[in-house]
Amino acid sequence: MSQHSLLTGTQHETRGAPEARPVPLKRRASWAWVGVVPFFVFALLFLLLPTGFLFVGSFQDSLGRFTLDNYPKLFRTLVLEAYWRSIRISFVTALGGGVFGFLLAYAVIMGGLPRFVRSALMTFSGVASNFAGVPLAFAFIATIGQAGLLTLWIKDLFNVNIYDKSVGFTLYSFWGLSLVYMYFQFPLMVLIISPAIDGLRREWREASENLGATPWQYWRYVALPILLPSLLGTMILLFGNAFGAQATAFALTGGTYNLVTILIGAQIRGDVLRDPGLGYTLAVGMVIIMAICIGGYTWLQRWTEKWLR
Predict the structure, then answer these.
(1) Rounded CA separation 309/302 (Å)
(2) Is residue 251 part of a domain?
(3) Prediction pTM value
(4) Disulfide: which of 130, 149, 195, 196 matches 230 by Cβ 3.0-4.6 Å?
(5) Model confidence over 14-57: pLDDT tens digits?
């Protein structure tokens, strides 16, 4: 028998033989989802259920009956003034804290300062961004209140009383409250914007310099377009952070300054202005504004990630 016949027969036998079927692997049950259960439980108990409770309460009167009268009350002068003051304070502190925090973070990260300066700044920012409420209000009253330490020093050294009508400053006004809010706004900006500044690659600056670009041109055409979404997104987050603050303003002014958070507390737990339905409606308006802020921040963060990959 020729070699060709042997090869041909072997091929026919091989083709006719049944193919071996792969043994299916048993899938093991994954327990990775257990790690996210606490997050969903927390979100359900402290975010979704309270929001639903506020939404239902906004359509009820003091006796629990269905009504649509709560939402027209949002256009009262007192309510509109509370929203407008909260929005103005949030905008001013978000802008001031964003600019100041960005400059401070950039100076520490990209300015060639010693390593321990950045560590000290990050530690301070982590503490100061969560320092609010009664302790923060007391600290500012003791520092620049009418009998505060800094107020007395300025009066002794420069013979100037910052609380005189000619100066026009008071800690319990719009600008005074904005100054207090700045204490926790700019550290939060430092913490959030630092990863974006770290994402600026040194090769981009070197390439710009090799092409003859000036530092202004580098910032105008390279660095600023990359950092702008992060800057705007973080400022939106700062806006929402100030808009939802209540304890600091209440402790500082005793609840006399008309902010939407203070007004909500007066409507729900007050004795004279008690109107729970209006309080729930005000809270729903805040939830809508906060949701817009979070949505804008998320969208800008996704835009930034395309540049920093």
Answers:
(1) 11
(2) yes
(3) 0.82
(4) 196
(5) 455 555 566 555 667 677 788 889 989 998 988 889 889 989 99
Does any domain span residue 78? yes
Identify the CA nearest to 189 among candidates 250, 240, 117, 134: 240
pLDDT digits (tens, 9 = 90+) for 121-172: 999 999 998 888 889 999 999 999 988 899 999 999 988 888 888 888 888 8
Amino acid at 217: Q
Range of the structural domain that residue 105 is part of: 65-308
- Round to whole Å and give the CA distance between 289 and 269: 23
Q: Is 23 domain-assigned?
A: no
First to last CA, the chain: 67
Residue 165 has a CB neighbour count (10 Å cut-off) of 7
Structure tokens at 225: 């377009």
Assess whether pLDDT exceeds 70 at residue 307: no
Number of domains in the chain: 1
CATH number of the domain within which 268 lies: 1.10.3720.10
- Least Cα distance to 282 among 253, 250, 258 occurs for 258
For 59, list phi and psi in degrees, rounded to 5.
-105, 20
